[in-house]
Amino acid sequence: MTLRAPLAAALWLALAAAPGVAQETTAETTAGAAEAEADGTAGEGAAPGATQIPNTELSTGAPAAGAPETAVQTGPQIYVREEHGDWEVRCLDAPEGQEDPCQLYQRLSDQEGNPTADVNFFDLPDGGQVAGGATILTPLRTLLTAQVTITIDGGQPRRYPYSFCDAGGCYARLGFTAEDLQRFRRGASATVVVVPALAPDQPAELTMSLTGFTAGLAAVEVANQ
Predict the structure, then answer these.
(1) Same domain, yes or no: 108 and 202
(2) Cα(96)–Cα(173) distance, rounded to whole angstroms?
(3) Domain range enclosing 15
């Protein structure tokens, strides 16, 4: 492999400096240099007695089979289609001929103003017990066993478990009945409680504004029909 050349050169220098090896190395190198000078193959600018790595051991590489020769294509792009109060309707570019799927988005910050969680509400087909859903994304160092707690206008708290974590954070996937969604529509704000794993006695209480929620959810429902 071509990456071995620098390593081999470093090992050669280490061995040449070792007691008992230097004398043999010097003798062999001197003899080699004399032979190179005799047949005219010594490299220009090479120091007398220097060890040369033959060019035949170096590789310039070759295209890998099936490897793309152009730049890597980026995936579908997310764009903000419209805003309603404190919410954004975010959509994903779909293939031509398909409707762009959209969700209702808001970023939540902690008491010190640090972005702590992302909330995405989405629509579900009519007729089922669960009328809509949401995904809450929190940082990786979240206490998963504490789950996520949501309270609307100081009402009855509801707790939701986390589903999984990846490099981007930890995800709680929530399902809402039609009655649940009505509470969000009628509410002024909700409190989302997230517990950090390193400070379980200091839960982060995140305020989720419900200003614009009704119009935003209606826009998502229309977009996803």
Answers:
(1) yes
(2) 29
(3) 1-35
Q: Are residues 142 and 196 in contact, defined by beta-carbon separation less than 8 angstroms?
A: yes
C-beta of residue 154 within 8 angstroms of C-beta of residue 210: no
Classify residue 20 as left (phi > 0), alpha (psi -120 to 50) or beta. Answer: left
Q: Is residue 104 included in any domain, yes or no?
A: yes
pTM for the full predicted model: 0.66
Structural domain count of the chain:
2
Flag whether 170 is in a domain: yes
200 domain-assigned: yes
Tell me the pLDDT tens digit for each residue of 52-103: 556 666 666 667 666 555 555 566 799 999 999 999 999 999 888 888 999 9
